[in-house]
Structure formats: C-alpha cells, structure tokens
C-alpha cells in the first residue's frame, strides 16, 4: 500500500527576513506618537526675546575691518608702533656706527701723526739760581730768587712747542713755598734749546724750629735741597698748520745749592715732566 505524502510550507527567503515581533510593536508605537505628540518649540525658530530687550545685528565685515570711532586713534598708534620701533632701532644703530667710525678715524689720524712726527717731551733743567733775602734767623722772610731755566726741544725734529702765557714757576723747601713768579710766553722751534730767566718773589715766609735747624745744618754742609716747579700751558705745532689743543705741562726739578745768599751753584738731581689732560706719548 502506498504512503500518502502531505505538502510542507516552504521556508522564508533569506533576502527578505521578517521583522521580529518586538520591532514591529516599537515601530507602531513611534508612528502613533508622531501623529499625536506636538513638535518641540525649537523647531519653529529662535524664542522670542523678553520685553525691553533689543538685538542689534552688525555685518561681519564691519565688525572686523572698521573699528569704533573712539578706538580709531588707539588702533592707529598700535598699528604704527612696530614701524616706530624699527625707525628708532635704525637710528640707534646709525648713531652708534657714526660714533664708532669717527673714533676709528681719529685713532688712525693720531697714529699717523705720531708715526710721521714722533713727538717727544722737552727736557728741563735749572741753569742757575740767585737767592736774596733768605735769612734763617729772621722770623718772617721776603725772599727774591732769580732762576734761569733751560728748555731743551732737541728730541723733536719736526715738532715745535708754543709756551703760552699764564704759566707759573715756584721754588719750595721741605714743602714750604719760598717764592713764585710767571713763566714767559715764547715759541720754541724744533731742535732748539732756550734758556729763560724769571724773577720769583715771596712774602711772609716763615719756618718752624725744626726746619730752621735742618736748614742751618744743610747750609753748613753746603748742600741745601730745593724744588723748582714749573706749570705752563703749551701747544704742540706739527709743521706750519697742524696744532694741538692747549695742555698743562708740569715740570718738577730737584736741585741742590751750596748757599742761600748771592749766586748759588745749582746741582740738578733730575726733572720730571707730566702732561694733563692725557697725551699718551708724553707720559
């Protein structure tokens, strides 16, 4: 006897799966909510401002490019500040460069003058010394001295010396000034030796007891030390055109005399020359 075959239901196609029961319920609930629930107020546009409030809208190009009128001057000053700083920096560098250039040019010029003329300080010495009115016993003295000074410019072949007026020559003993006088003004040519005489006078000169004893002992030994100081303003002359500024020359000579009355024999113990302000080749 043959078996009966019953037909079976075919399985669903894999390309179109059926939604599960839970998802179908959720979709139906969402559709029902959309139909009945009103939209959120934000979907209709921005909320209305409260009463008394104003909203001003300014174009974007005006906000970025056109500053307010009260800030225009500040904006201009801030915009020009880098330019001013660059100009100031350039001016400072230019001034510094000009000063440096002038200093280098002056140094080169002075060096060239020194190499060409080779200036040297003149030498000084005391040629003779005559003393009157220097009595050790008297309480107050008014001595008078005749001093002959020898200025030797033989070391300079191309440099002359102009001795200006208002110079001074003084003679001291143990720190006490005996007499003083003026240095005469004259011009000394290169390779020239000049002997000049000047009269020195002093008033109200007094010595202490210790100085009197020391002076009497040195006079008895025929060796009285004196100091002759000369301070005179001079100018150097290079050739016929070029001259230096006026400087003060100080010459200090140590001498020893054999007597304090009449024509004394002066023995030079050396002279020292200083120049102020600074002339480096004269020190």
Automatic annotation (TrEMBL):
Any single GO BP term: defense response to other organism
Compartment(s): Membrane
Region (Disordered): 1-46
Coiled coil: none
Keyword list, A-Z: Membrane, Transmembrane, Transmembrane helix
Ranges of compositional bias, category Pro residues: 9-21
Transmembrane segments: 91-117
Pfam families per the UniProt record, alphabetical: LEA_2
Late embryogenesis abundant protein LEA-2 subgroup domain location: 149-253
InterPro entries associated with the record: LEA_2 (IPR004864), NDR1-like (IPR044839)
One GO CC annotation: membrane
Its membrane topology: Single-pass membrane protein
Protein name (database record): Late embryogenesis abundant protein LEA-2 subgroup domain-containing protein
Naturally occurring in which organism (per UniProt): Triticum aestivum
């Amino acid at each position: 006897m043959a078996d009966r075959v019953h037909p079976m239901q075919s399985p669903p196609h894999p390309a179109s799966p059926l939604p599960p029961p839970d998802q179908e319920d959720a979709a139906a609930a969402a559709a029902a909510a959309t139909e009945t629930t009103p939209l959120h107020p934000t979907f209709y546009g921005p909320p209305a401002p409260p009463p008394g409030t104003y909203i001003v809208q300014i174009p974007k190009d005006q906000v970025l490019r056109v500053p307010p009128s009260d800030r225009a001057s500040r904006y201009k000053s801030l915009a020009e500040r880098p330019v001013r700083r660059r100009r100031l920096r350039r001016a400072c560098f230019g001034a510094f460069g000009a000063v440096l250039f002038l200093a280098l040019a002056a140094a080169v010029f002075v060096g060239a003058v020194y190499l060409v003329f080779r200036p040297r300080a003149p030498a000084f010495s005391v040629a003779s010394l005559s003393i009157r009115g220097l009595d050790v016993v008297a309480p107050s003295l008014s001595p008078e001295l005749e001093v002959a000074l020898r200025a030797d410019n033989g070391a300079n072949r191309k440099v002359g010396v102009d001795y200006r007026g208002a110079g001074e020559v003084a003679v001291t003993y143990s720190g006490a000034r005996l007499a003083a006088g003026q240095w005469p003004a004259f011009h000394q040519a290169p390779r020239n030796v000049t002997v000049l005489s000047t009269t020195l006078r002093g008033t109200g000169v007094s010595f202490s007891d210790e100085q009197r004893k020391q002076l009497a002992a040195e006079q008895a030994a025929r060796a009285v030390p004196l100091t002759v100081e000369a301070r005179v303003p001079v100018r150097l002359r290079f050739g016929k055109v070029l001259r230096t500024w006026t400087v003060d020359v100080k010459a200090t000579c140590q001498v020893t005399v054999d007597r304090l009355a009449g024509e004394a024999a002066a023995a030079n113990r050396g002279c020292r020359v200083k120049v102020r302000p600074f002339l480096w080749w004269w020190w």
